[in-house]
């Protein structure tokens, strides 16, 4: 309420009470004013009452919420369902204009402010997370793969002769498809095995650059966050190669924003060489629904070019989600989550190492990977490939999500390219293994429950492998005697396993 409204209220309620209420409101407004003035994430998270006041104040600035508005165009913020309107806090116009996702909409000042503030807060968080020299970023309502595609399409106009993208191999379909979708030919650089780790083959990268010629190469497409035993690419060395040959460098930093090691690699790569843009997921790093990413970089004009490449307006939902999340947490709250994630990683590493040794397995030594761990699966019996896949289905049916089992020799064709040893990031990794990651938001009880269920599944798989070895071809799963819950679950595991193998 403005001053005149408050004065009118004093004729109905004691002036002292009105002034007290006015002061309380000013405390909310003070936080909002500081946010708009500084454009940085507040140190301490806001209460929901402040957040809702702020969002309401922004929403009423959009033309679809004007009292007496008369819209006669095809896009006037009309919504058939009141529930849908409330779900979006009545931000209906989206963000950007047809020529630029970061542009201001004349009839949606509130949504435009929301977009600008969100991008400013996210930039502040990227600096806080370990890349202080980043100059610009924006939230795009697409997941990581399509956001990478947008970066490649922007580079196309700068390098019209280019047809190849140099790509150190990582077995993740969306980043491979992002290059195919943009119309380029990925040149896969196989990783080299150093100890247990799979690392970037720098000599092969430079040799391929010389063979193809820099002008024919759109960019180097590197990766930070990944599943062990692969580790983040050697970003500093790749950045130097890119700088020396005048080749752009795009980094897939999918869930690396939460890992200080990954962010340090990006910062150092930009310092010693060339990194044009780095892309990270919203859902993996900020615990919001899937559907958004952040494109960031060190050259303000190039990041603006990428935003102008996006065709049409865009959904404001990812921006709204991350804005609410960051204002709720505050920078201190987010830093606390980053600290807790590091502690959880150490906890998971310790417990997984202890469990692996109890089964004569071992935790792979991957010190350069700050997010993911891998445990060998060498001792599951003579039918090892089937046992490894069975273990994965058992974990899934016991509600363990996120863990991956990687058998030997898996072959997968993605967009016409055949990958041998798929999921292991190399043609012939020495052993099958199991992956687990310590991501932001994970709790100690998640680790404890995972270890408990994994232990039980390993015992059951070994027991079943021994049965098969002793049965000499007799089917142990056609018995007619009564079975317990665990046996029923095991039968389901075998059904899922057969379904998976037939579909492959």
From TrEMBL:
One of its GO terms (biological process) is conversion of seryl-tRNAsec to selenocys-tRNAsec. InterPro entries: PyrdxlP-dep_Trfase, PyrdxlP-dep_Trfase_major, Sec-tRNA_Se_transferase, SepSecS/SepCysS. The record marks 74 as: May act as a substrate filter by repelling compounds with a negatively charged alpha-carboxylate. It is found in: Cytoplasm. It holds the Pfam family SepSecS. It catalyses: O-phospho-L-seryl-tRNA(Sec) + selenophosphate + H2O = L-selenocysteinyl-tRNA(Sec) + 2 phosphate. GO terms for molecular function: O-phosphoseryl-tRNA(Sec) selenium transferase activity; tRNA binding. Its EC number is 2.9.1.2. The modification N6-(pyridoxal phosphate)lysine is found at residue 284. Homotetramer formed by a catalytic dimer and a non-catalytic dimer serving as a binding platform that orients tRNASec for catalysis. Each tetramer binds the CCA ends of two tRNAs which point to the active sites of the catalytic dimer. This is O-phosphoseryl-tRNA(Sec) selenium transferase. It comes from Ailuropoda melanoleuca. The lineage of its organism: Eukaryota, Metazoa, Chordata, Craniata, Vertebrata.
